[in-house]
Design a protein that fits this description.
Length: about 300
């Protein structure tokens, strides 16, 4: 049996009952966070990666969306650790905090009802393919003045799911969004980077992206371990096609090379040297294998 945290206690995750009338369910009035913990077999230890940063982002999302999280970052951190201990996790695991409007009344309103907080775990592999072939979506990324993608709103994932669905139905693995202005934004559930003549570029926050925590870690790896600065700059679609390397970053997906975009082969169609090096370093960092980054890893046992 797997446990989850629901409102104020740990319960069997199958026993949860949310009414079909629930406002969060009906209108997507919620926000989510996505955290990962990595098993280090040599140390027999589970490391939760950048737990505090994820929980702070969760709090910021709640504030922006008027879905205030009913627990402090410290309390959420404690709940997360307790949940992993209860579930006796000894493998890589995804952790999903969610907070949504708890009321069952009809109107789509953000005020007045209690905010239902839950945390659950998931052991399945998110994206088993080592390389991705992607397309530019016909769906435009939601703008900051529509449903702010910076705040991980549940409702924003309809936009992501439509883009992913279209991509998969058309024979691609994933989709890349453009903004309403036509700049490259992000993938359905990941940020995007390109490598071009030794430079690494990624779209800025103003191009309707989530400020990914993996994106931040990658910028740090590039700066501190590879002496390459990251340039935050709006990118045109064609700059993707002409890049030497393209990769996605995200908690669930990790560092994932993109080898084809709209049927154009990127570089030589294999993982590029910069992407490979980042991937190797990132995989060591998250498992607590690089002492300089050990502070990012909260150990469980
Ligand atoms: N963009 C979107 C829309 C996402 O859902 C995610 C996954 N959380 C990301 C980017 C990557 O963010 P992070 O590295 O913090 O997981």
């Amino acid at each position: 049996m797997a446990y989850m945290f629901d409102i104020d206690r740990f319960v069997d995750e199958r026993s949860l009952s949310v009414s079909v009338k629930n406002k969060g369910l009906n209108y997507g009035l919620g926000c989510i966070e996505g955290i990962r913990a990595f098993w280090n077999d040599r140390e027999k230890q589970l490391f939760i990666f950048r737990l505090e940063e994820h929980l702070k982002r969760f709090h910021d999302s709640g504030k922006s969306l008027f879905i205030n999280i009913p627990f402090s970052v410290e309390q959420l951190s404690h709940i997360t650790k307790q949940l992993l201990l209860l579930n006796q996790v000894t493998q890589d695991v995804y952790i999903r905090p969610i907070c949504f409007k708890g009321s069952n009344t009809l109107r789509p309103k953000l005020n007045g009802s209690f905010n239902h907080l839950a945390v659950y775990t998931d052991l399945s592999e998110y994206e088993p393919k080592p390389f991705l072939k992607v397309c530019i979506s016909s769906w435009t990324r939601i703008g900051s003045n529509m449903i702010p993608p910076q705040a991980k709103p549940s409702a924003g994932y309809m936009n992501s799911a439509l883009a992913n669905n279209e991509a998969v139905m058309d024979g691609y693995d994933e989709a890349v969004f453009l903004t309403k202005e036509g700049n490259v934004s992000e993938a359905a559930t990941a940020n995007i980077f390109i490598v071009r003549r030794g430079e690494v570029l990624t779209p800025p926050m103003s191009d309707d992206i989530l400020a990914g925590i993996t994106r931040g870690t990658v910028a740090q790896i590039l700066h501190e371990e590879m002496d390459i600065p990251v340039i935050e700059q709006s990118l045109a679609r064609v700059e993707l096609y002409e890049a030497d390397e393209v990769f996605f970053t995200g908690t669930a997906i990790g560092i994932k090379p993109v080898v084809e975009i709209d049927r154009r082969v990127i570089g030589d169609g294999q993982i590029g040297p910069v992407t490979l090096k980042i991937q190797q370093i990132y995989n060591q960092i998250v498992r607590g294998e690089m002492p300089a980054y050990r502070d990012y890893c909260t150990s469980l046992y």
